[in-house]
Amino acid sequence: MNKKDLRKKYHQMRQAMKKDEVMMKSKIIIDRLIETTWYKQSSCIMTYIDFKNEVVTGNFIRYALNDNKRIIVPITDMSSKKLILSELKDFDNELYISSYGMLEPKKDYVREVSGEILELILVPALVYDERGYRIGYGGGYYDKLLSRQEITAITVGIAFEFQVVDRLPEDDYDKEVDYIITDERIIKP
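User: That's the sequence. What structure does it adopt?
Assistant: Structure tokens below.
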């Protein structure tokens, strides 16, 4: 199966999940994450804000902020095809729903930061393989981010167990993650 077909298949599978299942499995994944040494030792964490039945990150962001972690969220810049990294200080008051339907920082709360401060990055995907490769939405935003020379952070994919397969097709520009956390296990590719 090619990337386009895999993208469609796993997007449909994730969309078919019931909200209570998404919430329950997300809690298991986040509980696993906060018990890891990488979380405990990181003072600056980049995380996506969940969208379309992704592993829910809102409560994680609130928890991490209360745990005195710096939280960095991505802003999708369609013109440059890059992610802008912005520090988030208040999950409940600094975000709005963008024209793409995603939560992003309001203009007044964009606090751009450099990727070199990141110690842990939570990477979204539609599907991962056991080697840490991923298929996202197809824009290459995260592959570009993870290719940047100043990025030395530990990268962690968080996904539901059904989103992990043996092997995916990969291209030269694809960047694998260091770990994957699911509702059933932690994988070290």
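The chain has five helices and twelve strands.
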